Every structure is written in C-alpha cells, then in structure tokens.
Amino acid sequence: MTYPTAEGNIAPLLPAGLEPTGDNTVTVGIYCVPIHGEPEYGVSIKVPARWNGVDGLYNLGMGIDQEAAVFISAERNGQPKYLCDIDYYRLGSRVGARATHQGYTFVEYQGEVTGEAGAPAGDWTEHEWWTKYSREIGGGQGYDLAPVVVDVATTMETIHVETLDGELRLLDSPWDPVSRYLPMAGPATATLVTNAMKSRNISNAGPLDPDAFWNHADVIGGSRWPGESGGPRY
Q1: What's the CATH number where 178 sits?
Q2: 233: in domain
Q3: In this structure, is residue 138 part of a structural domain?
Q4: HEC profile for the chain?
Q5: What pLDDT tens digit does each residue of the chain (234 aa) get?
C-alpha cells in the first residue's frame, strides 16, 4: 500500500546524513514471509531516502508476530523490529489486514481484488536503510557503538501482481504514530504482490554523525519512531 504525505513530513524523521529524495510516497507493507521455517506476519512503514547518492527506503518500523526474530535482528543488523499483532487474510476476492500494537490498532485495510497487473520484466534491486547503534552504558551522553547506516540490498523478481480497490485507514496510536507524523495527503493504492528473492546483502554503509544523530537515538521500542525512554512522546 502506498500513499502521498505532505511535503516536509519525511525530512524530520530522517537522521542527518540520510536525505529526502523529493518523493513524498509512504509505503505500508503487510507481509508474510518464511523465517526460521515458519511464517512471519509483519507490517513495515518505509519512506524514500537517499544515502551517499543512492536512493532507497528508510524503514521506520517493522512490527512482527514472531518473537525469536525481534531481538536477534536488532542486535545483529539494527533491524527496527518489535512485537505486533497482525491480521492478514484473503477470502475469495476480499482482502483484509490489520496491525495492532500495545492495544492500539494503527493500520487497517479492506479491499477487493479487481484483476491482475503485469509484473515488471527481469530482476530489480531495492536498497533499504536501517540504523545500528548503542548508547553508552549508564545513561551518559555517548555511545558504546556509534551510529551507522545499514544497507540492505535485495534483488528480487516479481512473480505475480493483483490490483486492489479498497480503503487504507491510519488510526491514531502513540506507539505507532504513522497518522501523526505521516498523515495521508491523498488516496492510497494497493496491490497484492508475490516476489521471489534472488539475493540479499546486508552491509555497513558508513557512519552517521553521532552528535547530529543524538535526537534520533531515543525511539519507541525497537522502531525508529521518535520516543522518550523507549516509550511514546505523548
């Protein structure tokens, strides 16, 4: 699902060094992928961002229903995962999805499949940006691991695409403040997509300015939404 947000909403959410691309499209993905031999249901919120001249998508949060992958993903690669309840289904032509965290439902979608769309020919590569860092033990104003950008370069082939006609709703939640920071400025579009992953390379793409990053270091849970002592900024 994608939708436009107002110009100027994305830039304040990006750490200094990651730059807006001029594209104000927000991507809300509800997905199911195999992890550890079982299905992982999740939701991700991504915005366009440029790092060292390369355009990609900065991931603000990935709510998933599989605890095993949450902490190890953050510790290894800085992946912004946290536990979240996901409802995602298809019944005939009807498709529904819902993401709920800390008792708040923050994303809902209901729609109908309207037909097939042509898949792009050949492989394509996406760069997704994560951040990895660790603040100083004891609560000081420093880092045990200074912030870096993690580049997730994934090459995929799109196998099948179906178009949807429906409604995306962003609901207010202090824990997942999508509607507060990235409100909709126009209608959303949605598709059902089946991709085949060809390769995935996760690498350290270089350091961020640690002083400029400090205001981005305190986040809500494992996400990259602005937080206070790990909780929401009410």
Answers
A1: 2.40.400.10
A2: no
A3: no
A4: CEEEECCCCCHHHCCCCCECCCCCEEEEEEEEEEECCEEEEEEEEEEEEEECCEEEEEEEEEEECCHHHHHHHHHHHCCCEEECEEEEEEECCEEEEEEEECCEEEEEEEEEEEEEECCCCCEEEEEEEEEEEEECCCCCCCEEEEEEEEEEEEEEEEEEEEEEEEEEEECCCCCCCHHHHCCECCCCEEEEEEEEEEEEEEEEEEECCHHHHHHHHCECCCCCCEEECCEECC
A5: 999 999 999 999 999 999 999 999 999 999 999 888 889 999 999 999 999 999 999 999 999 999 999 999 999 999 999 999 999 999 999 999 999 999 999 999 999 999 999 887 889 999 999 999 999 999 888 999 999 999 999 999 999 999 999 999 999 999 999 999 999 999 999 999 999 999 999 999 999 999 999 999 999 999 999 999 999 997
